[in-house]
From TrEMBL:
It comes from Marinobacter gudaonensis. Gene3D superfamilies: EAL domain, PAS domain. The lineage of its organism: Bacteria, Pseudomonadati, Pseudomonadota, Gammaproteobacteria, Pseudomonadales. Pfam families: EAL (PF00563). GO terms for molecular function: cyclic-guanylate-specific phosphodiesterase activity. It comes from the Bacteria. InterPro entries: Cyclic-di-GMP_PDE-like, EAL_dom, EAL_sf, Sensor-like_sf. Transmembrane segments: none annotated. This is EAL domain, c-di-GMP-specific phosphodiesterase class I (Or its enzymatically inactive variant). Residues 20-272 form the EAL domain.
Length: 428
């Protein structure tokens, strides 16, 4: 741009940017500071639907010799807030121009917008409404991505996001899980979609605990009413992690790279059928050991509950259970979920007690009703239940719990047994 822009764009009309766009065959390009801008689209896949449900629009810049210019360098060119705002709107205008001419009349277009640009613009981005009206692209096919980073005007950001929603667009938080991420923004903005930062996936690839945290974040976001997209999927193992985490959508080089060839969209080898079949096979393997626990210990539980009915003490009734090297402890709970008497602990568990967690060891009169294994046993007496591995609050170690509801002198009670769990794929 050769002309000097005012400090603020008082009238961000579409007509101000239209002369900067050029038609090249079936696509559009834009001119900015001597560079040619093009639209690149990267597919976004729904795991459950096993197909493309949207595309993220990315800008690609080229110098007069047609050499690629890094996007980072492009966005360093604006010399003022006004020019920064203009470049942002020029990119969005270009992307919508290109996408509105594509045969696909179903899927979403994901558009990036920085909080700094949002808060620098007008409260009601009338420009964006003009672009949609001019191009004929329905607002319900647009997903506005807000980059997850600090902003000086949270209230303006909330108002602008509300405007996009009122317009009929979907909204998304981008890069959630990066340095400035927090759930407060999720609660304040109530986005439709949350895009997880690829660093979460990178850590989960090498660290089992990070994988559990990723799964927990996805679960929390779902409970918050958000769909979840995991970006940066580059390998088959990462694709399997994404499937196991329960995310709704995936995006990354493993499925398809961004392309400026808009006529060949969706031609990448997305083998979601094979991935899901592999997941089912792996999942069946991981469930088998849990089923084996029930089969293996059912006899022990029948023997223990029989002795309890005969009036023997917990230690006498559970001696066979406690002698098993994997068993940590046994305890008895009444029909209100309150523990009866002291926990009986195996010799193996006693030797392995961590003194740092000594305040948690005594569980006399503890209330376990919140635990699912307890409620299941109360709801389905005489049936042995088993949990997935979880962190036991009595000693901060990983375990699975077996629970069996039974009647003693007409009163429903639950015998519970904790079994040490090693956090490995074979155990989990």
């Amino acid at each position: 741009m050769s002309q000097r822009l005012p400090d603020k764009l008082k009238a961000p009309e579409v007509d101000l940017l239209s002369p900067m766009l050029n038609r090249e065959g079936d696509t559009w390009t834009a001119d900015f500071r001597g560079l040619k801008l093009r639209t690149a689209l990267q597919p976004i896949y729904s795991i459950s639907h096993k197909r493309i449900v949207g595309y993220e629009a990315l800008i690609r810049a080229f110098d007069p010799d047609n050499a690629a210019v890094l996007p980072l360098h492009l966005f360093q060119l604006p010399a003022s807030d006004a020019e920064n705002l203009l470049l942002d709107r020029l990119c969005r205008y270009l992307h919508i121009r290109n996408y509105s001419g594509i045969q696909d009349q179903l899927n979403w277009l994901f558009l990036n917008v920085s909080p700094r640009v949002v808060t620098a613009g007008s409260q009601a981005d009338s420009f964006f409404g003009q672009v949609l009206e001019k191009t004929g692209l329905p607002p319900h096919r647009i997903v506005m991505e807000i980059v997850e980073q600090p902003t000086d005007d949270a209230e303006r950001l909330r108002e602008t996001v509300a405007y996009y929603k009122k317009l009929g667009c979907l909204t998304a938080i981008d890069d959630f899980g990066a340095g400035h991420s927090n759930f407060e923004r999720i609660w304040n903005l109530s986005p439709d979609i949350v895009k997880l930062d690829r660093k979460l996936l990178t850590r989960a690839t090498d660290d089992h605990k990070a994988r559990q945290i990723l799964n927990g974040i996805v679960s929390l976001l779902h409970q918050s009413g958000c769909l979840v997209l995991l970006e940066g999927v580059e390998t088959r193992d990462q694709a399997m992690i994404a499937i196991d985490a329960g995310v709704d959508f995936v995006q990354g080089f493993y499925f398809e790279k961004p392309s400026t060839d808009l006529g060949q969209l969706g031609q990448g080898p997305a083998d979601l059928d094979q991935l899901l079949q592999e997941y089912k096979t792996r999942n069946q393997v991981t469930l088998d050991p849990t089923r084996q626990l029930v089969d293996f210990f059912s006899g022990y539980f029948e023997q223990a509950t029989g002795k309890l009915r005969d009036g023997l003490s917990m230690h006498q009734a559970c001696v066979e259970l406690l002698n098993h090297p994997a068993v940590s402890r046994c305890y008895l709970v009444d029909d209100r979920g309150v523990q009866m008497d002291d926990t009986v602990v195996s010799d193996t568990a006693t030797r392995g007690l961590d003194p740092r967690f000594k305040p948690l060891e005594s569980t006399t009169s503890a209330d376990w009703y919140r635990q699912q294994y307890l409620r299941q046993a109360l709801a389905q007496p005489e049936s042995l239940h088993v949990t997935a591995p979880y962190l036991c609050v009595t000693g901060a170690y990983m375990c699975v719990t077996l629970s069996l509801g039974f009647y003693q002198q007409g009163k429903l009670q639950v015998l519970c047994c904790d079994i040490l769990a090693s956090p490995t794929p074979a155990t989990l």
